[in-house]
Amino acid sequence: MAIAVKNLRLKFPEAQARLFTDLELTIEDKEKVLIVGPSGSGKSTLLNVLGGLIPNVIDVLMKADQLELPNSGAYVFQDPDSQFTMPTVAEELAFIMENRQVEREDMDQRIVQILGTVGLDIDPAAAIHTLSGGMKQKLAIASALLQQADTLFLDEPTSMLDEGSAEHLWETIQQMWDGRTVVIIEHRVENIWDKVDRVILMDDQGRIDRIGPPDEMLENHRDALDAFGVWHPESWHNAPRLPEIKAQSDVLLEARDLVVRRGKRQLLTIDALDIWKGEWITLEGDNGTGKTSLLLALMKLIPSDGDIQFKNKKVKKQKHYNGALYPVFQNPELQFITNTVFDEVFINLELHFGREGAKQKADALIERLGLGKVRHLHPLEISTGQKRRLSVATAAGGIPEIIILDEPTFGLDQRHAFRLLQMLHDMVKSGTTIIMITHDEEIKIRYPSRRLRIEDGTLMEGGGSDD
Amino acid sequence: MIEAIRHYSTPADRVNPITKILVAVGLFLAVVLIHDPNHLFHLSLLMLVLLIVLSGVKIRYLVLLTATILFFGLISSLYMIFYGEGTSTLLRFGIVHITEESTVRGVHIMMRGVVLSFFGALVVFTTKLTDVFYSMMQQGGLRPKFAYAFMAAIRMVPIIANEYMTLRRARKVRRPLIHRKYISGYKGFSTTIITLLSQSIRRAYRLGIAMESKGFDDGPRTYYHRTSFSIIDLLFIMLVILTVIFSYQLGQWYSPFATTDAR
Amino acid sequence: MVRKNGLTLTDVLVTVVIALVFAFIYSIWGGVYTALEPLGLHLNQLLYGMWFIAAVVAYLIIRKPGVALIAEFAAASGETIVMLQFDVMLIVYGLIQGLACEIVFAVVKYKSTSLMVAVAAGVAAALSTLPLDWYYGYLGQLATWNLLLMFGFRVLSGALIAGGLAHLLYQGLKGTGVLKLVGQKATADEGL
Hints:
Membrane topology (chain B): Multi-pass membrane protein
Organism (chain B): Salinicoccus cyprini
Subcellular location (chain B): Membrane
Structural class of chain A: alpha/beta
Strand order of the largest sheet of chain A: 6-7-8-3-9-10
Distance between the termini of chain B: 42 Å
Largest sheet of chain A: 6 strands, mixed
Main location (chain B): membrane
Distance between the termini of chain A: 40 Å
Largest interface: B-C, 71 and 57 residues
Helix content of chain A: 25-40%
Helix content of chain B: 55-70%
CATH superfamily of the largest domain in chain A: P-loop containing nucleotide triphosphate hydrolases
Shape of chain A: globular
Largest sheet of chain B: 2 strands, antiparallel
Number of domains of chain B: 2
Strand content of chain B: under 5%
Strand order of the largest sheet of chain B: 1-2
GO biological process, one term (chain B): cobalt ion transport
Number of strands of chain A: 20
Oligomer: heterotrimer
Structural class of chain B: mainly alpha
Number of strands of chain B: 2
């Protein structure tokens, strides 16, 4: 047995209630376990206990009747930006060996060797910030391997990656996980579900709801998985079926001879792009092809050459749109400016609908996006999924005519993702145009009225075969 | 980034960063104690020569840098030129009273800044930031937790810059929809800083945990980059001392300023 | 449970990051400081408190000995890091200002987060470098009214920016919930 926990309970400072009640869990040596559950279920906290971060590193009061933990554990976290210490790949890997007091003479060879193990074909002197998200997470895995841990704790390692990179990362992980115990938390489980030995479902109260082999969980306990809004390989069977909406006949946005640059490099050239009222457009393309840059250029947030017209009026500056074109960025927290969730939605409506009207509308939006419980909290205090929903709520008041969304379903659980899609559908129905970047194949084939894709530095109609 | 504008490496690259910092502090003290503008004049020139020879940076960048340093040096000494005490008036205009003495003093203050800026630039061009912290740990006895906290935090600067750019864009877009009061003046300023700080603190907290999960414990460790003192350090110290002395001699030989005491 | 009373890695990391955020902001808005200089009327001194605001904010958040000094050192080296300019004078000044703050915080035993403490630290830091400026900038040879102007602006700025503004930002940060993660924590030993 690698891990055994009996009657675990803990309490965060400043928290009212304790987390976990009678939590009991055993994980066998070399077992691969996947933990799923709604946000707030304490998955990450549990992982931190199992790897000994709580209470050794994170100051939390904790007790358990029995607590058997692995001798050595290593983590891979979700955010590449907050798990590296040093500027370059070699220095980062060396950091771990320095901690373990590996002799300097042995370091170079081990760096090369470990990069080979995880299939990272890069110069060790490369700066980490030049790597793609997928490469960064491979580096994180290489770091974990260098710790020579018998147990790996993976805390949503693919949540910031696009579909292709995520799939590739899971392949890499599987290649090296024999002989190790692996405990995984993950939202997006389609690549890993049937590869693990057991799936643990946690409820929203910090209890283990049920445990079982993956196929059995899927066969016998799908209701429970769905009830907690957790993604599973057959989630999309529950996806809302939405009739396609025909776009209306008025052109909203016309771009001609658009040239978008990144630095001095010409990134994209587009001869003509028309966007109609009531369209639901998805924008596809590999990482780094310039999807986000294109949208920023259309919004006039970065300089570009060419001609953009909105409702037959030339747009030269962002403010010429006068709020009719509204983006929801990938980092929602950077869009917030007020101190409560409610105000954040309210102020976008206030000028247009008046105080009372805005208040009612804001309340309705907040309820619809499942933010009622957190309406008085600070927008920076709520969970990542809630932040994302809040940023959609600020866009959804009916004033913007075109809403631009960058990966809106990223990090949302099944329930909220489906609700969001339903809501986008309703908005399109009432005449709003939606342009969204998404990597999710299931969304691309189900919902948009038009698919655009960036390939070879230009924009094409129709979806790509695969990302 | 710096490597891109250099065209050769120099012996100054091999000087221990601690030596460079200590020499900089010594130079600062020396400059405060020098009151002879002629001395300082030649010291500025010699420092420029050292910068050109020892930095290995392409000359057009150095020209640009020198112009900037001179410009900012001048405006930071204007208070003395305009309002310093003195008897031989050159110009009087309202409250402004420029005298010969105050001008010399102002230029003297400016040259102090220029000397330090030239030397500072030399240090920046020839020193890797990580080496500063590695040598502070190995030769300076700095506890690893301070050194690595600094190095890890430095990694976040581009991230902070990126977040700021996105934040600015996001506000630009919201501006037409919302009342001015939410976004302009102090309100806009403070929410910008609070958002950036809040994001960065959260990230720093997570990074701290990640670092400790990777076995970092402020105890004994080995070092990937080894730094040491060598004969080069001694030569570098001698070079700067000789430069200070030699510039004094030059000041005796050629004196562009009539006075030898700026006070 | 291990209670760590000294500075933990995370404490230092958070302190340095706070200082670097301010250094970054300073690097974009610092042009204002320079733009105010040419008149020679020391209007730039009204922003002087921006140089050591990081020390006060970091102290209010973490409340441990050494934080203000580290924050000031980081803020001063921040110019090197953010703008690639190494200015030894800034670092010497930063250390002196950090020490001045530390003394004020030590007097209140690193407990109080009141506005008065922040203001006192701001004023102390503002005054701490005057002796050095006196020698470096020949302040003794300046017209008296001009000197008093500089002195007054600087103290005012220390009180308003490094004291008052720092405290407001601290309150604002508290509202975002992020401070639950860091600094001296209230003990929660009961309830298990």
